[in-house]
Amino acid sequence: MWLDVDGRRFQDGSTRTMVFGVAHLVSYISRFMSLQPEDIISTGTPPGVGLGQKPPVYLKAGQTMRLGISGLGEQRQTTIQA
């Protein structure tokens, strides 16, 4: 998974950068619930989030984000003023 903001790469990671591996997460979650086909386990985000930057980086209105996952596709979003 990768994420660019206005062409600058902030995140680029894979399951190799996860604190806990996929097998561990499935095993742990299975203790508390039955997993079914097509269930989704939200694992968080790769290193590089804006809050972790020095100084922290926050999105501003008009910025464009591109994110993608190899073999799955990509999407583009533009922020707006709320």
Automatic annotation (TrEMBL):
Residues 1-78 form the Fumarylacetoacetase-like C-terminal domain. Keywords: Lyase, Metal-binding. GO terms for molecular function: lyase activity; metal ion binding. The keyword Metal-binding applies. SUPFAM superfamilies: FAH. This is Ureidoglycolate lyase. It comes from Methylobacterium frigidaeris.
